[in-house]
C-alpha cells in the first residue's frame, strides 16, 4: 500500500527534488493556507515537464546516497507500472489551494478510481473529506489529519483544537483520524513526557481509528525514551493501556521492528490484530516480512489490522 503524496508534500516541490536546477526560471510565490511561500509548485508544471525532475533528500543531515539514483516523481496511476495491484493511501493536503487555482482533487480521485484501488484518503481539510464522503464512502476509508491545534482548517474555518472536541462531527464524515504524536503523549518545553491524554480511547469510543504521525529516528525524542526510538513506538502500541491503529514513520524498519519483534500485542483485543506494513513503494507485506528498500525520505504507514 502506498502513501502517495504527489499532491501533498509535493505541492511545494523545492526541497525534495532538483527542480531548482532543472527549471531555474520557474520560481513563483503563492499563498497556501494564509502563508506566503516562494519556490517551485507542482501546479505550474505539466507531468511531462516533471519527468526530468528527480527526487532528492529533503533533510540534509540524512544520507544523500539515493539522490543520484534517479527516482522520479510518480503519478498515482504510474504505480501500476511498478506494482501489479497497488492499493493506495492518498493524502490530499491542500484541496482549498488547488480549488483556488482551478484544480479539482475530487474529480481527479474519481477519474483514477477505476484504474487504481484507493483504500484510504487522508486530508487535513475536513471540508474536502465531507465533500467526497458521499461519493466514496464505504469503498474508501477517509482519515482526517489533525495539524497543530492552533492552526485553522481553512476548509471549514475551525481550529484543529476545536475540532478535537467534536469527534462526533468527524465520525459523521471520516472513519479515522491521524494525529501528531504529541496529541497522545504531550511533551514539556524541556522535552520530557507528560502523562498521556485520553484521545486514543476517545477516538475508539467514537468509532474512529487513530493513527499517530511524526515518527523519525533522527529527531530529538523525549528524554524519557533514553534516545531509543523503539521505546517510543512501544509507548504508543502496547503501553499505557491503549494502542493506536497505526503510525506514520520516516523510518519504517524501526516501526516494524517495534511492532513485530517487541510489542506484546494482545490479539484478543479488537483494536488490533495482524499488523500490516504499508510502504511508500506500493508493497503490501503482512508481518513478519520486512518492508523493502525505502528511499531515505519516504514516509511509511504501519497499520495494525
Ligand atoms: C463538492 O465540490 C464540488 C466542487 O468541487 C461541488 O460541485 C459539489 O457540489 C460538492 N459536493 C458536496 C457534497 O459538497
Ligand atoms: C472562511 O472564512 C473566510 C474569511 O472570513 C471566508 O472567505 C470563507 O468563505 C470561509 N469558509 C468557510 C468554508 O466558511
Ligand atoms: C459539533 O459540530 C456540529 C456541526 O458543526 C455542531 O452542530 C455541534 O454542536 C458540535 N458539537 C460540539 C460538542 O461542539
Ligand atoms: C518523564 O521523565 C520525567 C523526568 O524523569 C518525569 O518527571 C515524567 O513523569 C516522565 N514522564 C512520564 C510520562 O513517565
Ligand atoms: C487480552 O485482552 C483481553 C480483553 O481485553 C483480556 O481479557 C485479557 O486478559 C488480555 N490478555 C493479556 C495477556 O493481557
Ligand atoms: C520498489 O520495489 C521494487 C521491488 O518490489 C524495486 O524493484 C523498486 O526498485 C522499488 N522502487 C522504489 C522507488 O523504491
TrEMBL record:
Gene3D superfamilies: Phosphatidylinositol (PI) phosphodiesterase
Signal peptide boundaries: 1-22
Annotated EC: 3.1.4.46
Entry annotated with the keyword Disulfide bond: no
Catalytic activity: a sn-glycero-3-phosphodiester + H2O = an alcohol + sn-glycerol 3-phosphate + H(+)
Organism domain of life: Eukaryota
Keyword Lipid biosynthesis among record annotations: no
SUPFAM superfamilies given in the database record: PLC-like phosphodiesterases (SSF51695)
Keywords per UniProt: Glycerol metabolism, Hydrolase, Signal
Top-rank EC class of the record's enzyme: hydrolase
Residues annotated as domain GP-PDE: 1-259
Biological processes annotated in GO: glycerol metabolic process; lipid metabolic process
Molecular-function annotations in GO: glycerophosphodiester phosphodiesterase activity
Name listed for the protein in its UniProt record: glycerophosphodiester phosphodiesterase
Organism encoding this protein: Setaria viridis (Green bristlegrass)
Amino acid at each position: 500500500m502506498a502513501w502517495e503524496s504527489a499532491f501533498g508534500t509535493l505541492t511545494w516541490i523545492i526541497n525534495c527534488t532538483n527542480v531548482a536546477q532543472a527549471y531555474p526560471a520557474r520560481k513563483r510565490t503563492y499563498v497556501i493556507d494564509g502563508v506566503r511561500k516562494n519556490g517551485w509548485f507542482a501546479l505550474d508544471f505539466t507531468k511531462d515537464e516533471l519527468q526530468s525532475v528527480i527526487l532528492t533528500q529533503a533533510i540534509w543531515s540524512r544520507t544523500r546516497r539515493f539522490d543520484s539514483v534517479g527516482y522520479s516523481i510518480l503519478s498515482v496511476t504510474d504505480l501500476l507500472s511498478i506494482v501489479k495491484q497497488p492499493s493506495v493511501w492518498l493524502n490530499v493536503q491542500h484541496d482549498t489551494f488547488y480549488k483556488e487555482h482551478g484544480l479539482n482533487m475530487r474529480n481527479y480521485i474519481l477519474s483514477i478510481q477505476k484504474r487504481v484501488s484507493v483504500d484510504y484518503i487522508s486530508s487535513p481539510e475536513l471540508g474536502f473529506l465531507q465533500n467526497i464522503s458521499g461519493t466514496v464512502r464505504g469503498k474508501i476509508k477517509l482519515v482526517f489529519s489533525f495539524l497543530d491545534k492552533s492552526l485553522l482548517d481553512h476548509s471549514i474555518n475551525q481550529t484543529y483544537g476545536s475540532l478535537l472536541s467534536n469527534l462526533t462531527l468527524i465520525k459523521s464524515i471520516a472513519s479515522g483520524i491521524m494525529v501528531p504524536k504529541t496529541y497522545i503523549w504531550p511533551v514539556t518545553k524541556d522535552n520530557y513526557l507528560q502523562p498521556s491524554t485520553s484521545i486514543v480511547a476517545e477516538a475508539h469510543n467514537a468509532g474512529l481509528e487513530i493513527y499517530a504521525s511524526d515518527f523519525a529516528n533522527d529527531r530529538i525524542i523525549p528524554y524519557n525514551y533514553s534516545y531509543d526510538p523503539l521505546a517510543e513506538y512501544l509507548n504508543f502500541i502496547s503501553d499505557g493501556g491503549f494502542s493506536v491503529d497505526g503510525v506514520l514513520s520516516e523510518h519504517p524498519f524501526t516501526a516494524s521492528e517495534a511492532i513485530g519483534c517487541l510489542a506484546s500485542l494482545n490479539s484478543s483485543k479488537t483494536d488490533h490484530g495482524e499488523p500490516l506494513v504499508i510502504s511508500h513503494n506500493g508493497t503490501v507485506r503482512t508481518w513478519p516480512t520486512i518492508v523493502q528498500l525505502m528511499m531515505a525520505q519516504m514516509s511509511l504507514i504501519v497499520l495494525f489490522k
